[in-house]
Amino acid sequence: MTYFKPATLAGCLAVAISSYPAFAQDTFLMDGVTAREGDNPVVETDKYKKDCPWTIGMSHFGVNANTWTVQVAHESEAAAAKNDCITKFILLDAGFDQKKQVADIEDLVAQNVDAIIVQPVTSTSADASIAKAVAAGIPVVLHTGRIESDAYTTEIQGGAEHFGKVMGDWLVNEVGADGKIWVLRGLAGHPEDTNRYNGLLQSLEGTNVEVIAEEHGDWQYDKAKNLCETLYLNNPSVDGIWSSGADMTRACVDVFKQFGAEIPPISGEGNNGFFGQWIRDGFKSVSAEYAPAQGAAGVRAAVALLEGKELKKHYDYNPAGWDVDKAKQYYREDLSANVWWPTELPEEKLQELYGKK
Q1: Does the entry feature the keyword DNA-binding, yes or no (predicted)?
Q2: Are residues 65 and 113 located together in one domain of the fold?
Q3: What would the DSSP string read from start to end of 251-265?
Q4: In a domain, 3, yes or no
């Protein structure tokens, strides 16, 4: 079939998908994803069941925010391409604009898509639009950020507090109860940033660890590099660094190397560039796991609903942290710094998107 490709990911991606084998007849969402314990209602089976072909829409909070968000888009498209029932996959980029996300979701409702996947810009930006979609009979799958409403159909949430606490517990153990640390947060106001930070606060409870600097690096290398340079010049005496994302970690490591200083213990994430740094330079770190394959999991959840399979309302993704030995198992010298682990992208796609030329 014909493919329609826009010039960039930043616009609406409306892709006609060629035929591939359909998903297996189970409700597997992603490695490490499990149904939440406790009160967790079952989505009414067959409520959204529809004969294919299907059109699935996705409201992405900001495709080009960093390399991780770009890969989420790729993972989502690749998962859709594997299912011969999905004849159209529409990806809309909110660009971290709350009003744009509202308009995007309402546009998908107006197009009468069969399911919508939402990554919220903020904890409230998508609430009303999601409610409108569900009222119109369109199931909504939520991931990569919680919202204040429960109008969505099902959610797959990487435990942001868990992510922050994995890094925080490790760092407290490294710096001791009286250590002094820098805190590099993500995008201010984004639910993932807030909840990862709350996980750090849990780790700090009952300790005398002092946060001597706290800044938002927006999960971006360039901004974090400027921040770390300023922090180092103001006060280089820091015992450890809690970094909410690997691009910021890489930036800070590069700053310490730039000044010829010892790299303090610093938290990281499953990014190929960071893994290479970690392996080569031998500093102390832990890698919290936050797979961009959550994009593929969202597509699979939408498919399961349209196939009439049983899903729960809430799914969690709380993997353990990785040590450097596990990082070595994933690191790829032949791929760029921009690929994130673990991934579901096939080898040919990894080479196309991230292969070193």
Answers
A1: no
A2: yes
A3: HHHHHHHHTTPPPPP
A4: no
341 occurs within a structural domain: no
Residues 172 and 240 grouped into a single domain: yes
Residues 84 and 229 in one domain: no
In three-state secondary structure terms, 172 is helix
Between 69-78, 120-129, 305-314, the lowest mean confidence (pLDDT) is in 120-129
Phi, psi torsion values for 141, nearest 5 degrees: -105, 125
**Domain interval for residue 218:** 160-269
pLDDT band at residue 11, thresholds of 50, 70 and 90?
very low
Q: Is 190 helix (H, G, I), strand (E, B) or coil?
A: coil
Token digits of residue 268 = 């990281």
Structure tokens at 202: 């849990």
User: Is there a contact between 193 and 244 (Cβ–Cβ < 8 Å)?
Assistant: yes
Q: What is the pLDDT of residue 19?
A: 34
> In the chain, what is the straight-line distance between the N-terminal and C-terminal CA atoms, in Å?
29
Residue 191 in domain: yes
Q: How many domains does the chain have?
A: 2
Q: Is residue 291 classed as helix, strand or coil in its secondary structure? A: coil
Residue 249, pLDDT > 80, answer: yes
β-bridge mates for residue 142, sequence order: 118, 155
Token readout for 102 is 């509202």
| CB of 42 closer than 8 Å to CB of 196 | no
